[in-house]
Every structure is written in C-alpha cells, then in structure tokens.
Amino acid sequence: MRNLIISAMSIMLLLSACNSGKNNDQSAQEQINKKELLAQAQGLFQQLPAVAVNETNPITDAKVKLGKLLYFDKRLSKNNTISCNSCHNLATYGVDNKPVSPGDKGENGKRNSPTVFNAALHFTQFWDGRAKDVEEQAGGPILNPVEMAMPEEKVVLKRISDDSKYVALFKQAFPESKIPVTYVNLQKAIGAFERTLITPSKFDKFLNGDSTALAENEIKGLHTFVKTGCISCHIGPAVGGSMYQKFGLFGDYSALTKSPLMDEGRFGLTKNAADKYMFKVPGLRNIEKTGPYFHDGSVSNLSEAVKIMGKLELNKDLSDAEVADITTFLGTLTADIDPKLAEEPKL
Ligand code: HEC
Ligand code: HEC
After folding, report:
1. Before 292, cis peptide (omega within 30)?
2. Ligand 2: centre distance to CA 263 (Å)
3. Given the DSSP bridges, would you call strands 278-280 and 244-246 parallel, antiparallel or unpaired?
4. Predicted confidence (pLDDT) per residue in 166-210, tens digit
5. Who lines ligand 2 at CB under 6 A?
6. Domains in the chain, start-ordered, CATH in brackets?
7. For 238-262, what is each residue's pLDDT tens digit?
8. What is the pTM (predicted TM-score) of this model?
9. d(CA 106, CA 96)
C-alpha cells in the first residue's frame, strides 16, 4: 500500500509539473492513449478481490450465514427497533440515504452512515478510523447509546442465548469455541459476512484488460479523474479507504458544505493538533448511489461534491465539463447487486 501511495504521489508531481495548475480548455481535444491510461489505472486502483480476507477470521459459510442473520436482527437493539440493515440497507447500496441516521430512540447521530459494501477493504473503519477492522467495528453500534443502545454485552448475549436456533448456529460457526455465544464471536460472524460484501462493476472489467468495458465518455472521465489529481487520495481497489487526509486542505470545509457543526475528525480521538479535520478518505465504489455526501451528509448532489473536492483538496476550480466528466467516470463504479443479497434471512 505504501508503494501505491508513493507512486500516486509521484504521478501527482509529474502532473503538476506539466500542468501549471490552470484548467486547460484544450482537454476536450486531447488525445487519450487508452493503453497507457489502462496501464496507469491498473497501477493506481486494482480490481476488487472476491472477498476481503482477514487471516485471523477466516470466512466460512456457517459464519457468513450467522453474520447475515445478526446483521438483520432488530433484537440487537434495546427496543427491538433497528438492525444494522436499518442504517446500512443492503437494498440501497448499504446506506440509508439520509444525512445522519436515527437510532433506537429516534435520536439522530452526528455522522453520515457510510456504505458497508467494500468497507472491509478499508485500512481502518469509521470516518475517523477509530476501529481497526470490520470485526472490531461491529461491536460498536450495538452498545452505542444513540445507535442500537444495548446497555452491555451481557444483555446482548442473553437475548441471543434465549433463542436455541441462534445457539445452534453459533456452535456450527465456531466449532472450536468452548462457549460459542460470545461477543467476540458475534463480531467475527458479522465481520465475516461484511467481508463478502464486495461489488465489482464494469470498471473492474476495464482493469482486467478489457478496454471496451468503458464507453468513450467514461474513459474521458477516468482520464480527467487521474489528471486532476483525485488519485493522490482516492486510490486502491476501493478507490479510497487507504489513508487519512485533511478535509479542507485549501480552506474551511463548512464554507462550501454549509455544515451545521464543525466535526474535527481524528482530532476528537487523538487530541493531536495535526489530526484536526483529518478524516479517512472514503472509498468511491457505488458513490452515485450512496448520497448524501461527506461525513455529515451535508451535500446531496454528487456533481456538487466533486466540485467541492476540487476546491478544498486540490485548490482547483473545476469547470462544469470537468465535473461532468468525473461524475460520468464515477458512474462506472456502480455495481449490479444481486437483490437476493438484500432479502431478510429467516432464522
Ligand atoms: C443508527 C444507525 C446505525 C446502525 C444501527 C449501525 N450503523 Fe454502522 N455506521 C453508522 C454511522 C453513522 C457510521 C459512521 C460513524 C462514524 O464514522 O463515526 C457507521 C459506520 C459503520 C462502518 C464503517 C464503514 C466505513 O467506511 O468506515 C461499518 C462497517 C458499519 N457501520 C457496520 C455496521 C454494522 C455491522 C452494524 C450492526 C451491528 C451497524 N453498522 C449499525 C450508522 C449505523
Ligand atoms: C487530498 C486528498 C483528497 C483529494 C485530492 C480528493 N479527495 Fe475526495 N475526499 C477526501 C476526503 C478526506 C474525503 C472525506 C471528507 C469528509 O467528508 O470528511 C473525501 C470525500 C469525497 C467524496 C464524498 C464521499 C462520500 O462517501 O461521501 C467524493 C465524491 C470525493 N471525495 C471525490 C473526489 C474527487 C472527484 C476528487 C478529485 C476532484 C477528490 N475527491 C480529490 C480526500 C481527497
């Protein structure tokens, strides 16, 4: 991953050297060398893997089946009102399309629900990276007072143990555990399920070497995405999710997003001044479907979010044509997701 970041940074340097920082109107006439662009894209992004592997939590059918049941189970919330799927609806690309989400008591949280699709590939979880992987993350919302609001682990485990079908499924999923129904095993089961939520799109066909997988205007959009410098942060198979960056390198973000409150990102966690306004660079897979955008859902329109990114992160005033090109490319990251995946499983 470090190599990837270094190569992206050197490309950035090259780009800024040839491109004095001004938008150039000749870009429309520019000849795009498809072969070169493909090779460059293969270096920057990589195809999605079939699943996101974690050596300490191998994916098995029994774990995934159990994890999916838990993911949909409202009994994991205090008043039996919400499940993981309420905020990360698998039928709507793993989000609820709301700026912020109401929890078990109807009270809103402060941050936008990111998608669970491809999240397992990110180097950390949450907008501020406070959980190291999806297994650790899965333990959080159940006990979070404004999310599922369960008072403590014991209460969660009691509800599960009261259902003999769950007890049998935990035994099948964790045959090596003396006591299969534990909070850690619950996290592992949900994590294993999330590790299967990977969504390849036509962009992966392109990365696999099929340069006809993208239409001319989509290739042009990819070219603009690369040339503009979005790739200094949005790289890797998830097109993001591999580093933290300051939101607002070139100005105060709320001036453009009209955010109602200033979230200081990782600073809230580390209290280190260098972490002020640092957020995880989100992945852009399925981005046209996962609005509203940014950590607080403050911007509902994707073109607007792209324009803001240009200004805040690259100090560029992108033209409407450039924004349209980039947005067209982002559309190639939308996958067809099997509707069966989003059907609520029966215990
Ligand atoms: C009330 C709504 C709500 C519920 C219920 C909920 N989440 Fe979330 N989820 C969020 C919000 C909001 C965030 C971002 C919070 C932050 O970054 O501080 C988040 C973050 C995540 C992330 C991190 C993704 C990324 O890109 O960093 C994952 C994975 C996730 N949730 C999975 C789950 C699972 C699994 C459950 C059930 C155990 C669950 N969530 C329940 C709202 C919810
Ligand atoms: C210097 C790093 C950096 C660069 C360059 C950058 N981004 Fe971002 N991008 C981020 C960060 C950090 C966020 C999360 C901001 C937040 O909400 O706190 C983000 C968020 C986004 C989002 C919203 C994602 C979501 O799930 O809400 C989109 C869309 C996006 N970027 C597109 C782009 C495009 C297009 C470009 C090029 C014009 C670009 N970015 C350049 C760092 C960067």
Report:
1. yes
2. 16
3. antiparallel
4. 999 999 999 999 999 999 999 999 999 999 999 999 999 999 999
5. 228-230, 232-234, 245, 247, 249, 279, 281-282, 284, 287, 290, 293-295, 305-306, 309-310, 313-314, 326
6. 25-48+200-331 (1.10.760.10), 61-198 (1.10.760.10)
7. 999 999 999 999 999 999 999 989 9
8. 0.93
9. 14
